[in-house]
Each structure stands twice: as structure tokens, then as C-alpha cells.
Amino acid sequence: MSSPNGARRVVNTLESLGVFVIFGIPGIHNLDIYTALTESEIRHVTARHEQGAGFMADGYARSTGKTGVALVISGPGLTNILTPMAQALHDSIPMLVISSQIPTPFIGRRCGFLHELPDSASLAQGVSKKSFCARTPEEVPAVIRSAWDLASDGRPGPVHVEIPMDVLGQTSGGKVSFQDSPPPYPDFLIPEGAMTRTADLLDNSSNPVIFVGGGSCGASEALSKLAEISGAMVIETCAGKGTVDERNPLCLGARSHFPCVREALSEADLILAFGTELSPTDLWEKPLPKNVTLVQVDLDPANFSRNGMADIGITADANEIASALLQMVSPNPSRSAGTKEQVSRLIEKSSEELATVTGMGDELDSMNALVSAIRKAIPEEGILFADMTGPAYVAISEYPAYSPRTFLHPVGFGTLGLALPGAIGAAIARPSRPVCVMAGDGGFQFTLPELAVAVQERLPIPVVIWNDHGFGEIRRNENARHPGMFIAVDNTPPDLALLASAYGAKYSRPETPGDISASIRQAFSAGVPTIIECTTGNGGVH
């Protein structure tokens, strides 16, 4: 029996890693892999654009914590997926991107070969944890396994593998020379006495705060119990929403950008930050107070000095440390009762500050009504994929998330168009969970063709579109700069009813918030996606 070629080794390796679905687009340069897929049980979902494939892999990973896989061709296929890779890198989303490459003899020669890039590895390296190249068929399994491990090792992120066409087609390439295994993250480092010091600080703190980021999604139960025992107030980043149930009376949710919460933070004497780099995006470009003791728990030790200096840095999994602290911290029921009263006051005060903080003006009531209607329609375990749109900025604080990975929003890199393909990836990854999209008409059109994928895959996704005829957030900013003068923001959207019909999707244009909730519930059982068009109007939604 002849040895398998490089492409068959790609598929065999993915199968051995437990991959059951990949997102991609076939092209002449990667057809050997697709030939191998014809004999595999791996499900392939064909995107309409490589950016869509990348966002689907992101959505798969963002909703599960497991590595999503995308397959593209060399040249334009790779450049098209760079944006999803950059989004995944910024938000620490594990993703494996496999691209073909032109034949080995032509690499780097600038000879005009089809889909040739001068230095594709450097392009990919700039938006990933690492870019690998398999130089022989024999190297393929080791390269893919190394990339797969690196994607989830330590701080997660996207990893790229390119394989030349001749390697994909060859059954043997000679001696195996692969020595490019990624350097492993250092073993978890817990400084001597750090746990005891942290527990003592928490016991003796007057106003402790637990800051919860996206890297703590697996520590939901432990962090909730730690907050209850210690009486600490919980603040979540956007990526950490739902890690502690936002109905928990100790949890402020993602409200660190409100003036009243900033004032409360200024009075804190201890912050325990779990799974967050405390980036300018996480903190809305407002640094933490200087007089606070900061303990950071993170898989990436570079975060302990990246955005300020931690007093104690613990390189470890959030759940491991939170669980250990539970055994060390003394219960403080009186502080817990006081914190619950404080959180209640802050939530009430932040509602009064919402208009000023968001700058949404006359549209705020309509956006709030929309966000509330969506929350009422989505079951507790359901997932909302929110694009970069006005209602999503309101939802960051006003949409309560009850569990981790249920409010998904590209707040970090801020890519328009992620929500629809991301939701497709999530719906395929978690078919038992309802998945909903909230997007603006502008952002929706960035990846509009992926609606066809949702139809073809028979995914009952409600696609709620806030139609303000253009780029509403930029329009508001332009108006603040030069009132009444606008440029490049008033864009005529397509007729969404005709668009839905053309794609074979359903369509609804509800008149009231109650109608919106009803439309979403109906869409969950429609068998295909449903476009639900919402617009502003005199303080209501119609």
C-alpha cells in the first residue's frame, strides 16, 4: 500500500485531533485536501468568502472554548482571512487556519505564479501566535499537531499552517526535517506565598473588587462562590460577561465605563483580576486607580506588566486559583450584604448615566427597547452574537448574561460583520442552543453573503437588523464634530424583505418590542434564518 500524500495526512491528522467540522472555500491550490475530505466524516461548511470562513471558525471557538478550523487557498484566500485572524488574536480565540502555498520551487522568487505572495508567512505571523510551514508530506502531522496545541496552550489564539501544493500532492518528500515545534508556555508559576498573601488581602480588604475577563469563562462557579464568601463586588469585561450570572446581586456586569462605577473603583483597596489583560478596551481607556493593590491571575505572565504593574502576578488557570482561594478565605457575610446594597445603587445610578455614557441621543429608548425584547425572547442558555452596532454598545451593560459565552461581541478588535458568520459557527458547534444575531444594516452588509450558508445549512437563526440607513455610530460622531454635516455615513441599504426572499430566508418587520420578541421566538423554529428588521421611531421600535 502506498504512503498517503500530504493532503491525506492533513485530513487524517485533523480526524485524530477530534475535528468534526471545518469552514472553508475550495480553490485550485487546495483541491488535494478537498479530495481527501471526500473520504472523511469531517463536515465541511462552505463559506461565501474567506472572511466568513474565518469568522465561522471564530464563532465555533468563541461559543465553545474549543479550537475552530478554517481552510483557505494561498494568496487571496489567506489575505481575506487575515482580519478574522486578527480579531481572534485580539480576543484570545483559539483557531487553526490552514492555507495552501504555491509549489516549493517558486516560493519567494516573485516569478508571477498564480496566487503568489512575497512573504505569506510574515503576513500570517503578524495576526497569529505563530505561522508554520510543512516542507514535506512527512512533516504535515507534526506541524498540524504543534499548531493545534499552540492554539490553546497558555493564552489561546489563532495559529497558521501553510502547505505547498507539491507537498499536498506528494506521497513522500524524503527525510523528515521538522524541528519547528512551538516553545511551550512556561509551567504555571505561583510565587511563593502568593496564595496566602492574596487570601489575607481579601480577608482584610475594606472594598475588594473581583474583575472578571474572558479568560475566566471556565471559572464561573468558583468565582461566583468566591464573591459570595468574600463579599467582593464583581465587575465583568465585555468578554467576561456572564461568567458570574448578572442576576447575582454582587455582580455589576460590564459597567466599568460608567462614572458611578469608576468612582466606586477609586474607593477600592484591592482588585483581583482573573483572565483579563486590563487593556484600554477592557477599561474603556480609563486606567485603574493608582492606590489599589492589584492581584492578577492570567495564563499570560506578560499581562502582569502590559497595562500597569500587578502587585502579585499568578500565572495559572483562573478556575484553579479561584477554587483554591475558596478554601483559604474567611466568610464575610456582613461585607457581602453591604456590597449587595452598593451594587443595587450603582446599577440604578448607571441607568441614569446611560444616555450620557453612550451618546445615543433620541435613539436610546428604541435601542433599549430592542435589547430588552431580545433578552426576553432568548432562553437562558441561548447565545446572542452582537455586531459592532449602536444597540450592541447599549447591550454591553443592559443585556444581562446568565452564563459565560452567551453574549459574544467583537469589542476588542472591533470588526464589522462578525456577528452573522460567527453565529453560523456557534449554531453548528452548539446545535441544541438557540443562537441569535444583532447587527446594524451597515455591518450586516460586510458579510451579507454568508446568509446563504445559514439557509443552506438550515440554521434557524434570527438575524435582528437595526436599520438606521448607514453607519449610525459614525454618524453620531460626525454630528458631534460638526453638527448637521455628514459624509459617507448615509448609505441606502437593500430592501431586506426582497433580500430574504432571494436567499430563501424568512422576513419579519415587527412594530413593537413585544412583536420583536415574538418574531425571534418564531424564528428559532423556522428551519432557516429569519431577517427581523427594526428601525427607530418616536421613542419606540417599529
Secondary structure: elements and pairs:
Elements: H1 6-16, E1 21-24, H2 31-37, E2 43-46, H3 50-64, E3 68-72, H4 76-91, E4 95-101, H5 120-125, E5 131-133, H6 140-152, E6 158-164, H7 165-169, H8 194-204, E7 208-212, H9 220-230, E8 233-236, H10 259-266, E9 270-274, E10 293-298, H11 303-306, E11 312-315, H12 318-326, H13 333-358, H14 364-377, E12 383-386, H15 390-398, E13 407-408, H16 419-429, E14 435-440, H17 441-444, H18 451-456, E15 462-466, H19 472-481, H20 496-503, E16 506-508, H21 513-523, E17 530-534, E18 536-537, E19 540-541
Helix pairs in contact: 1-2, 1-6, 3-4, 3-16, 9-12, 14-15, 14-21
CATH superfamily of the largest domain: Thiamin diphosphate (ThDP)-binding fold, Pyr/PP domains
Number of domains: 3
Largest sheet: 6 strands, parallel
CATH topology of the largest domain: Rossmann fold
**Beta-strand proportion:** 15-25%
Taking the alpha carbons of the first and last residues, their distance comes to 66 Å
Which CATH class of the largest domain?
Alpha Beta
Output the number of helix runs: 21
Helix content: 25-40%
Overall geometry: globular
Task: Give the structural class.
Answer: alpha/beta
